[in-house]
Amino acid sequence: MASTYTVNTGIEKPGSGEQSGTWGTTTNANFDIIDRSLNGVGAITLAGTTHTLSTSDGSLSEGHYRVLVLGGSPTGACTITISPNDQDKLFFVQNSSGQSAVFSQGSGANVTVADGDQAIIYANGAGSGAAVAEIKPPAGAVGTGQVDTAQLVNDAVTTAIIADDAVTQAKIEQDVQTKSGTASVTLSATALTTFVKHSSTGTLSIGAGQYDGQTINIVSIGTMTLSWGVGALGVSLGSDAKIASGIWDNANSYWFFSETIT
Of 106, 127, 170, 198, which cross-links 220 as Cys (Cβ 3.0–4.6 Å)? Predict the structure, then answer.
């Protein structure tokens, strides 16, 4: 009875009574295939605009790698055909080829991995109509405790949806203003902290805060005199102030300045 091969990985299954005295060679080849399929990382060299990612029965091949690191010098977006089209496949992809990589197995859906991106993809092995799909987490889903520290660049996030009413109101904006000479500062209602850099000589007028606890920090590289359209408590800033920090008391409508260096 002749050998047969597993459906998705091409591992050889010797027929009953076959390969007497030589089955060790087949077994060792099978172990190599299993090893590559579980943890193998393969450098796949692309050229032109097409590449066939083949899995050969009974011998090591590119299609056995679990992780595909795409490189080479393709001349444009490269279509990578997973062959044969009746095998289920799972790949972790790192595209470092300089071009987009389009994974296909049949006439079904394809997956495009942009240059520099990573993706987890699978092929369904459905024959001529086979499709490739990408495994992604649900859009916008972050589980409890999955984020310890997050940095949000100014203006990078315009709208955020946080599930389960975890946050009812959030102010995340930092407002940075540059002023010169005699000028005024108007505070934004959405700014948690306002930073002001003042240059030249003149009076910097500070407007009212917008909500309780809003802060302002001012640095001068010139000769600055601070004034307020509303009251202020704390240290007396006077003229030639260099650094000032204040917090707004909304209940009493005044700034409390806690630090200054002149």
Answer: 198
